[in-house]
Design goal:
This protein is of the alpha/beta class. Helices cover 29% and strands 22% of the residues. The protein contains 10 helices and 11 strands. A 7-stranded mixed beta sheet has the order 6-7-8-3-9-10-11, sandwiched between helices. α4 packs across α6.
Length: 327
């Protein structure tokens, strides 16, 4: 079996605050192979976005990577210098942020920003860079891309700005794309078009994709595998069909039961009781136990997460024959 393009090993990202140390990412491990799409799913505050930012070294103080390794094509990005990371960002690893204004400069035209992004990594003329930029805008559904190149970010709607940010990420056909809820601001038609484009890109070029989201419907239609995060840890992972059809961890089951389903029309949705705990005051062992109806004394110890196949961190998993409401 070929080596993974990306291997995250025991990644730990901490934030020092006056109230204590926030372990936003607490021992996260996963692999991602060329052409594969991995969905990273969880509630707000589960550590999904920080995991993506940590991979590219984009965590600002008081945050820091406290431990672990991020092996990209065999190179540890945690120990790589800033100069080396700048050479990789954009060219080999692209990131799509949830807020497009984190990507776009409001005082520069779209053409200037896209052309400069091409020229920063490829030795091509400005005419070729402009052609590639125009074509990228067309791929993400922006009408009249030739004219829109001359526009500024404030002349676009929020959804249009997000499409521009996605187009910039696609410019170099990178080896890996880290997408942090990139379709949240888009309508369903454009969202479907973007999902089709990234799936085609992964299939045709071998680009790997880490798709960070809370939308299980998107993940089920897009990803090959899924990793479910809770309180900074991965609690269940596996092939998307296995996890969606037969969730084993109570948290995963709770997420699926809260999704509207055509098969349960008129039946009230079941919500997960309680609130996400503060990462400054997590219970010992499994962080989900205060909200879990299956918890007992054994849950004071966190189970290990097996490396292969459909795996979960739970002493009392749901029966494999039990089907989630979203199935």
């Amino acid at each position: 079996m070929t080596q993974p393009l990306l291997r995250v090993e025991n990644l730990q990202t901490h934030f020092a605050t006056r109230a204590g140390t926030v372990k936003a990412v607490d021992g996260v491990s996963f692999d991602l192979r060329r052409g594969e799409i991995l969905g990273l799913v969880g509630e707000s505050g589960s550590g999904k976005s920080v995991t993506g930012q940590s991979i590219l070294g984009l965590v600002d103080p008081p945050g820091r990577i406290a431990g672990g390794r991020v092996l990209f094509d065999g190179e540890d990005l945690v120990t790589a210098g800033e100069k080396r990371l700048r050479a990789i960002r954009g060219r080999r690893i692209a990131m799509i942020f949830q807020d497009p204004m984190m990507t776009l400069n409001p005082v520069l035209s779209v053409e200037t920003q896209m052309v400069e992004a091409v020229l920063a990594h490829d030795k091509v003329g400005r005419a070729e860079a402009r052609r590639r930029s125009r074509d990228a805008l067309g791929r993400v559904g922006i009408a009249s891309p030739e004219e829109r190149l001359a526009a500024y970010p404030h002349q676009f709607s929020g959804g249009m700005r997000q499409r521009v940010a996605i187009a910039i990420a696609l410019l170099h056909s990178p080896d890996l794309i880290l997408a942090d809820e990139p379709t949240t601001a888009l309508d369903v038609t454009i969202q479907a078009q973007i999902l089709f484009e990234v799936q085609t890109l992964c299939r045709d070029t071998g680009t790997a994709l880490l798709w960070v989201t809370h939308d299980l419907a998107v993940v089920s239609a897009l990803a090959d595998r899924v990793a479910v995060m809770y309180a900074g840890r991965i609690v269940e992972t596996g092939p998307i069909a296995d996890v969606i059809q037969a969730p084993r961890h109570p948290y995963t089951r709770g997420l699926l039961d809260s999704v509207p389903s055509r098969n349960r029309r008129g039946v009230p949705l079941r919500s997960i009781p309680g609130m996400t705990p503060s990462v400054l005051d997590l219970p010992k062992g499994c962080a989900f136990q205060p909200r879990c109806g299956r918890a007992d004394a054994a849950c004071a110890v966190m189970p290990e997460l097996p490396e292969n196949g459909h795996a979960w961190r739970c002493w009392h998993p749901h029966d494999a024959d039990a089907r989630g409401a979203a199935a």
